[in-house]
Amino acid sequence: MCYDLIAKTNRKEEIQMSLTNPILCLFEITDPNLIVTGISKERCSTNQRIHVVHATLSYQLLKCPHCGHKSLIKNGTHMSHLRLGTLSGGRYEMHLKRQRYQCKDCSKTCGAKTKLVNRNETFTHNIKHQVIVLARDMLTSKEITKLCGISPSSVQRILNANIHLAYRVKHLPENLCFDEFRSCNHWMSFNCCDAVSHRRIVTLKDRLSKDIIDYFEARFSVQERAQVQSVTIDMNAEYGSFIHRLFPNAATIIDRFHIIQLAGRALDNERTQTIRTIQDKHSRIYHILKSQWRLFHLDEIKVNDSKAVYLRGINEYMTQQNAIDLALDAFPRFRSVYQTYQGILSAIHQKDANAFQSLLTNYQPTSNQMDITINTFIKNGSALLNSCRYPFSNGPIEGLNRKIKALKRNCFGFRNIDNFFIRISLIHE
């Protein structure tokens, strides 16, 4: 009978040990002092089903952590309810019995410790890691709540405790990109990134010149800022007013896309004014200017002048060049604007600074919509020509802003700008 009892006890311990390792491996728990004693299903007060893992934590403690004596005895257990990471989208908990110890010398008590969770916390490192990974995938707090089985406020507390915004980057890159985006409560926030590595440098709550100047002057020395060689911006005049103050050796570059966009807007405004002067709304010229507006934005090299195609709106077969010529021949003023636009487009695509400079110098005002655009280009002459001399553009920072807009749209906006910036730092890691 004694041998049978010993054999049953050993067999029970072997079964427990065989179940312990696979279960702990599922939750990525590596503490050797944890032993799983069972698995059950329960329901909480909100009628939510909970998967419970029952385990014990016990090991031999040699010295008292308070007085250092070796007179320790076991003094019962303490039950801890820990939140584990999810396996299938449900709520998983561990009911852990921690061994308690009492010192005979100082009469103080202590308990067994584990690296599974921080002191006085119930969320394990596993579930914290899952929350951060899901937040990096642009999921909303409610979606993370459903997947991990925790509350939205707990999700935000985990993110606030584990994600810290850097005071500054270690090294200021040689080429920067400036831009802004709409953040919270209709505020416009400032964004800056590396033009080469596309790494985010800083995101500020507003785009005021004073705050941007204070940030760079307070965190970077004059020697560090003097190493910056170029700063790429859009047509925002405020940026150009303080770039030389912050970065004395940097060349200001206006993004090529914004140059073509401004010229194309002037072309569209002139085309719209031309359409309004046409009395016959059923004429061929009217339909060309009205429906085939994309043809006038094409580069002359890409315009098809040999193959006739069916043009919707005109309801005729003709070449693209023929349709353009019909509109330009009827309105000489629109022709001059179109030719100027094509000159700008050609200089930008070929990155020919001399041709761009010649176009601005030889331009003759004709009281059209392009006059305002050319005057704007002349005021930003050096920065405009640098767009043809340097290979950098605002494409990297526009890509970062696109991710920010996608995050804001997925989460249906943010009321707290600090929480918004924490999520921005996650998606840009």
TrEMBL record:
Pfam families: DDE_Tnp_ISL3 (PF01610), Zn_ribbon_ISL3 (PF14690)
All copies of domain Transposase IS204/IS1001/IS1096/IS1165 DDE, residue ranges: 176-424
InterPro entries: Transpos_ISL3, Transposase_DDE, Transposase_Znf
Residue ranges constituting the Transposase IS204/IS1001/IS1096/IS1165 zinc-finger domain according to the UniProt record: 63-106
Coiled coil regions, renumbered to chain: none
Protein name according to UniProt: Mobile element protein
Organism: Pediococcus damnosus
